[in-house]
Design goal:
By secondary structure, this protein is an alpha+beta fold. It is built from three helices and eight strands; from the N terminus they run βααββββαβββ. A four-stranded antiparallel β-sheet has the order 2-5-1-6. A two-stranded antiparallel ribbon has the order 3-4. Strands 7-8 form a two-stranded antiparallel sheet. It is flat.
Length: 119
């Protein structure tokens, strides 16, 4: 089963980290990545929401910044391929130990490949 592990945190806190603090967190996360290397697919660390551009469908306009105002922003995500939710929870527990604050959302992925069927 494939899951997306969506990493949320208060961007004002994570953006305030020094380069050294950020490197420490990334090193701790790197150890978790090594532990689950065979189960991890793509991992994406998103740039700050201030770099986002949003297309608002109703108004057909582009705006700077994120889609919605929230207390915690989506900072990145993992794609994992594991045998079930319990394994995904195990990985999230390890990631959360390495990453101060925030929350992880675990969401099953259904693949869609136009012209190639679902799978």
């Amino acid at each position: 089963m494939r899951y997306a592990l969506l990493c949320y945190n208060d961007e004002s806190m994570t953006s305030a980290w020094t380069e050294e603090e950020d490197a420490i967190v990334m090193a701790r996360l790197g150890k978790v990545h090594e532990k689950y290397e065979k189960e991890f697919g793509p991992v994406a660390r998103l740039m700050p929401t201030t770099t986002a551009t949003t297309y608002r469908k109703e108004a057909k306009v582009l705006t700077d910044g994120p889609y919605a105002e929230t207390k915690e922003q989506l900072l990145g995500f993992y794609v994992i391929d594991v045998r079930g939710l319990e394994r995904a929870l195990e990985i999230v527990r390890d990631l959360s130990e390495a990453n101060p604050g925030g929350a992880y959302e675990i969401r099953p992925i259904m693949l869609f490949s136009p012209g190639h069927g679902d799978g």
